[in-house]
Design a protein that fits this description.
- The chain is of the alpha+beta class and 98 residues long.
- It has three helices and five strands.
- Strands 2-1-5-3-4 form a five-stranded mixed sheet, covered by helices on one side.
- The radius of gyration is 13 Å and the shape is globular.
Length: 98
Amino acid sequence: MIRVVLPAHLRTLARISGELELLVDGKITQRSVVDALEERYPTLRGTIRDQASKKRRPYIRFFACEKDLSHDSLDTPLPESVAAGNEPLLIVGAIAGG
């Protein structure tokens, strides 16, 4: 099971509270986790990544094991501790300003 933490506005949209656990088949990557997330919570489609291009939305970031994984390839395996369920994948809404 993969542990995922979503920002508050996406938890509200999906009608969940707190951390969630997902069963992900095959290689554990950003793509496979988001695929499983969108399959289980269809209301999240298009919120984390663009529905047509499947690219991450600009103000969404992925973190795990204290590292920003946002600019890694979507098919790069996530850290082993995330794949093992020891650490969560954090999907974070970024803030911009000046």
